[in-house]
Amino acid sequence: WPKDVGILALEVYFPAQYVDQTDLEKFNNVGAGKYTVGLGQTEMGFCSVQEDINSLCLTVVQRLMERTKLPWDSVGRLEVGTETIIDKSKAVKTVLMELFQDSGNTDIEGIDTTNACYGGTASLFNAANWMESSYWDGRYAMVVCGDIAVYPNGNARPTGGAGAVAMLLGPNAPLALEQGLRGTHMENVYDFYKPNLASEYPLVDGKLSIQCYMRALDRCYASYRQKIQKQWKQAGTSQPFTLDDFQFMIFHTPFCKMVQKSLARLMLSDFLSASGNTQSSLYKGLEAFRGLKLEDTYTNKDLDKALLKASLDIFNKKTKASLYLSTRNGNTYTSSLYGCLASLLSQHSAQDLAGSRIGAFSYGSGLAASLFSFRVSQDASPGSPLEKLVSSTSDLPKRLDSRKRMSPEEFTEIMNQREHFYHKVNFSPPGDVNSLFPGTWYLDQVDELHRRKYARRP
Ligand code: CAA
After folding, report:
1. Which atom of ligand 1 lies closest to the CA of 38?
2. Which of 7, 146, 260, 387 has its CA 20 to 30 A from that of 427?
C-alpha cells in the first residue's frame, strides 16, 4: 500500500459572527468567569438562518480546492462526517457533488457518517482505509466534517459553536496517520443524543457526558498504549509508552477547560499504571492518590486540582496551542478535533513540529471514541509539504479577528429565527448576505418540496 497516508492540506471555515462569552455571562446572569474561566471559552461563533450544514461544507470544500488549485477530477473519494442532520436520507455528500459534477467527475466514492462528534474521525479512517486497499485508484481522498452546535436556552448554550474543516488525504503526507495505532472504545449510553426530529437541539445530560468522555479517554489511551508497546516490542524495545511520547496532544473540545482536564487525566493514567515512573518529579503532588483505580476518580475534586497543577507545564507545551480556535469559536462537534489540529499548526513553526508525534483523541457521545496519532514529517524546509501546510493555517488569527461581534440579544434573536425556520418550506432565509465572508455559500431558498438551493457570495 502507499506510504505515509495522511493529511496533505486542510481548510477551516467558521461563521463571520460571534458572541462574546463575557457578554453572555452578564446576559444570562451567571457569575462572572463561569464561561470564560470555568469553561475556558472567550467567544462563540454562530450561524444565521442563511447557513446550514450543506452551505458550510460547500464553502469549506470550495476553499480547499481553490487554495490547493487541484483539478476537480483529482479527488476519488469524498467522505462527510456530521451530526447536523437536515435530511434523514439525502447525504450532505450528494449536495457537495454540485461542485464536482461540472468537471465531469462523478466517480467519487463516500457518503455521510454519523455518530455525534465522531463522524469526522470515522470518515478520516474510511478514507485512509480506502487508500490502503485494493480499491484505491491513485487519486486523492477528501474528508469534510462540520456541524452547527446549538443548544436551547440554559447551561449548555454557551458550549455551542459552528464550523467545518476539509482535509485532503494522500500518500507521502506531512501529517501521516501512524499505522496500526488506533485505540477505540464504544458503548451504549444516553449522554447526548438527538431524538427530537422537529428540533435542532440535542438532549444532553451534561455531567454524564463529561464522565463518559473521561471514561472513553481512559480506555482508548490504555488500548493505544498496549498497541504501540506491542509494536515497540516487535521492534526490540520494551520501554513503556507514556504521555511523554506524544510531543503534542489534541482532543475533541466541547469546551476548553475539559481538554485541560483530559490532558491531566492522561498523566493520571501513566501515574496509576505500572508504566508511569511514580517516583518521578513529574508527579509531584499526586502521592496521596497512589493506589486509586482510574474508574473511581471521575468526581474527585481534590484529585482534579492536584492533577491540573501537576500537568500545567505539559499542558502549556503539548496542548494549549491547539485550543486557539476552540476558545474563540466554540464546539464544532465533528470538526472540533480537526480545528484543534489546524490551531496547533497555526501556532507553531514547521521546525517546531517536524518529526513529532501528535496524539489525537476523538469523542462522539452515545458513544464512539478513538485515540490515534499522526507522525509529522522530518522535512521542514521552505517549500516542503509540511512548511506549506503549516503556513496555510497562519491566517487563522486574522480571520477570527475579522468576524463581527454581536450582542447576546442579537444572538438570541437569531437562535429564535433558526428555531422558527427549522424544517419550514417555501422561504428564502432572512439576513444580509454581505454579513457573510466573501466567497461563502449560503442557503438561498427552500421550496415547497423541501428542496434547497444554494448561492455563493461574491
Ligand atoms: N468563575 C469561575 N468558574 C466558575 C464560576 C465562576 N463564576 N462559576 C462556575 N464555575 C466553574 C465550575 O466550578 C465548573 O468548573 P469545574 O467543573 O472545574 O468545577 C465550571 O465552571 C462549569 O460550571 P458548572 O459545572 O456549574 O456548569 P453547568 O453545569 O452549568 O454546565 C456543562 C456545564 C455541563 C458542560 C454544560 O455546559 C453542558 O451540558 N454542555 C453540553 C455538554 C458537553 O459539552 N459535554 C462535554 C462532554 S460530551 C462531548 O464532548 C460531546 C460534545 O461535544 C457535546
Report:
1. 21
2. 146
Using the mean position of ligand 1's atoms as its centre, give its distance from the Cα of residue 18 in Å.
20
Within 8 A by CB and 6+ apart from 413, the residues are none
256 is catalytic: no
Residue 117 appears among annotated catalytic residues: yes
* Mutation probe of ligand 1 site: the residue of 147, 159, 263, 333 with most atoms within 8 A of C-beta: 159
Residues 275-320 have pLDDT tens digits of 556 667 889 899 899 889 999 999 999 999 999 999 999 999 999 9
Pocket test for ligand 1, best of 147, 210, 300 (most atoms within 8 A of CB): 210
Closest by CA to 456, choosing from 69, 54, 45, 149, is 54
Dig out the grid coordinates for 231 from the structure.
509494536
C-alpha cell at 185: 472504545
Q: Is the ipTM of this complex over 0.95?
A: yes
Q: How far is the CA of 254 from the centre of ligand 1 (A)?
A: 10
CB 80 within 8 A of CB 113: yes
Contact 5, 171 (CB under 8 A): yes
Residue with cell 496524539: 359
The atom of ligand 1 lying closest to the CA of 261 is 18
- State in Å, rounded, how far the first CA of the chain is from the last one: 42
Which are the contacts of 55, defined by CB distance < 8 A and separation ≥ 6?
440, 441, 442, 443, 454
pTM of the model: 0.98
431 within 8 A of 42, measured Cβ to Cβ:
no
